[in-house]
């Protein structure tokens, strides 16, 4: 899903959440996935605040929705490809993992529908709100039940975290999506460059 990485419409709060998630490279698997959870939860909360305030900035709304959907797509893929299979080998609760995959399928259906829509379309806001409710429920179950069981297993969470991060980076590149926080660093570098050039002017 394409994004305008240089847009100023993304708020400071979602940028700070994204920047925090980008620091997850050295985290174990559970901490890396929880960092993703916090980032997308903040984006859903920000969307609800925009709705409550009656904010009609459709460009900002669309960027926020695209950012959340892209992050969720990548997060779901690394879980399904790497984390869930490892968890299936490590814990004795297939029902929990089966339910998690079904919840992913429901979320992906809504993401697919949203990608074909624009702000202002009928049900656009409603679909994103429902997606947020699905995702928050999924996160709560995953963190309280699945992650708790995985932590007690003999899985090497550091190695698994490295594997998840490598795949996450590859997917960002493959899909042409800036890694969380990347646009902040680009903007900061540009600002530093401008101020340096001004200092050199006599």
Automatic annotation (TrEMBL):
Residues 29-149 form the Hemerythrin-like domain. Transmembrane segments: none annotated. Coiled coil: none annotated. Residues 1-24, 177-202 are annotated as: Disordered. PANTHER family: HHE DOMAIN PROTEIN (AFU_ORTHOLOGUE AFUA_4G00730) (PTHR35585:SF1). This is Hemerythrin domain-containing protein. It comes from Noviherbaspirillum album. The lineage of its organism: Bacteria, Pseudomonadati, Pseudomonadota, Betaproteobacteria, Burkholderiales.
